[in-house]
């Protein structure tokens, strides 16, 4: 076994009603001043109501005006507004964008470097404020990772800031937080989480530790995403999706996503296609391209998820995983054509160049992608 490591949040609470653990966390940390990140959509449907009530026992500032998939300037603005205020605890309540902004604030508020400095060298980051992550979707995995993704408008793409100090200190996985999640959000975030698990399991950097979480995360999501999508009252399926998404996030810290995420970044950065949808559009096509380099890994994953297919050949098992990915995207009604989002054939050169620059993730891919390969994959989704 090769040397490996895995960093996970220090304390994880799960189960319906676990949001009440927030009171215990605040007392444990002796927090007198809290910075609560969320967004207007999450707040408007009442998901932060109980959290704000718990936090009202101390000083609490709510930031709810971040844009979806925020740009560097959005996070810089919030950090400037907080200024030199004393903050004892940061809580992120929302999807990946909110949690990423929360994690970035924890390493920039009070620091002598800037967010743009971290875009050049994320290794200088230090954690100044402890964090609590409370996801309101079933997919980004940001509550488990050391990554934060921001849009870089001038580059029309996105960039990840990666440092283990961004691993959250506390995570609360309460299925009640996704009880009323719209179908299209279940679909997009659920497929995003599935991509985390499958990409991490087939990554060149996969380890025995990351495999454990990627495998179990994939099992939970493959078996529950349709149930969660089709049956709004199936809280068991939604709870399993939350745990599966968390496991996928943990796998990222030990392994890393690959070409699916790499090629999705320009789609979000320039065309503002939701992250989960961008991944869903590309997912099956990238895995089909990768198949000949990871047949055995996909077969192992199939054995874990669908043990009843164990008698099939490795090739057939790999095909089944890829077919299931495509079927899930189709059955959850995620659009699969870039043209439906206003992307034009003449934009292909930009996509190929921008996608090819995502080397942080492309180096993890089990099969090297040339610019011609990237062009071929993008062409398939026009």
Task: Please explain how this structure is put together.
Helices cover 52% and strands 11% of the residues. It has 382 residues and is α/β, with parallel strands linked by helices. It folds into 2 domains: 11-178, Rossmann fold (3-Layer(aba) Sandwich), CATH 3.40.50; 183-380, Dehydroquinate synthase-like, alpha domain, CATH 1.20.1090.10. Helix 8 (208-230) packs antiparallel against helix 9, helix 10 (259-271) packs across helix 13 (348-356) and helix 11 packs antiparallel against helix 12. The N and C termini lie far apart (42 Å).
Which helices and strands, and how do they pair?
Elements lengths: L10 E4 L6 H8 L4 E5 L2 H5 L4 H7 L3 E5 L8 H11 L6 E6 L1 H13 L6 H6 L9 E6 L11 E6 L4 E6 L7 E4 L9 H20 L5 H23 L4 H20 L4 H13 L3 H31 L8 H18 L16 H9 L2 H4 L8 H10 L2
Parallel strand pairs: 1-8, 2-3, 2-4, 4-5, 5-8
Antiparallel strand pairs: 6-7
Helix pairs in contact: 7-8, 7-9, 7-11, 8-9, 10-11, 10-13, 11-12, 13-15
């Amino acid at each position: 076994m090769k040397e490996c490591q895995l960093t996970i949040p220090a304390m994880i609470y799960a189960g319906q009603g676990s949001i009440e653990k927030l009171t215990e966390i605040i007392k444990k940390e002796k927090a007198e001043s809290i910075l609560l990140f969320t967004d207007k959509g999450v707040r408007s449907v009442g998901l932060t109501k109980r959290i704000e009530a718990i936090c009202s026992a101390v000083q609490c500032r709510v930031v709810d005006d971040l844009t979806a998939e925020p740009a560097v300037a959005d996070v810089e603005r919030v950090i400037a507004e907080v200024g030199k205020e004393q903050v004892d605890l940061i809580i992120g309540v929302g999807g990946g964008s909110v949690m990423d902004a929360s994690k970035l604030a924890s390493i920039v508020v009070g620091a002598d470097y800037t967010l743009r400095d971290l875009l050049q060298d994320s290794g200088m980051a230090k954690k100044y404020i402890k964090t609590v992550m409370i996801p309101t979707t079933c997919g980004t995995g940001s509550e488990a990772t050391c990554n934060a993704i921001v849009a870089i408008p001038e580059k029309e793409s996105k960039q990840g800031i990666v440092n283990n100090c961004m691993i959250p200190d506390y995570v609360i996985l309460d299925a009640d937080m996704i009880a009323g999640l719209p179908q299209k959000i279940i679909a997009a975030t659920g497929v995003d989480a599935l991509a985390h698990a499958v990409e991490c399991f087939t990554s060149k950097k996969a380890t025995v530790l990351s495999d454990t979480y990627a495998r179990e995360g994939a099992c939970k999501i493959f078996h529950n995403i349709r149930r969660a999508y089709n049956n709004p009252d199936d809280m068991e399926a939604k709870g399993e999706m939350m745990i599966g998404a968390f496991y996928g996030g943990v796998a990222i810290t030990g392994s890393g996503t690959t070409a699916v995420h790499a090629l999705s970044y320009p789609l979000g950065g320039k065309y503002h296609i939701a992250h989960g949808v961008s991944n869903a559009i590309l997912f099956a096509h990238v895995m089909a391209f990768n198949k000949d380099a990871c047949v055995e890994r996909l077969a192992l994953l199939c054995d874990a998820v669908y043990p009843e297919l164990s008698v099939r050949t490795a090739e057939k098992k790999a095909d089944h995983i890829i077919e299931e990915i495509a079927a899930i995207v189709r059955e959850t009604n995620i659009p699969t054509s870039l043209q439906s989002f206003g992307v034009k054939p003449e934009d292909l050169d930009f996509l190929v160049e921008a996608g090819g620059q995502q080397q942080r993730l492309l180096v993890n891919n089990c099969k090297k992608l040339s610019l011609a390969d990237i062009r071929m994959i993008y062409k398939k989704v026009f």
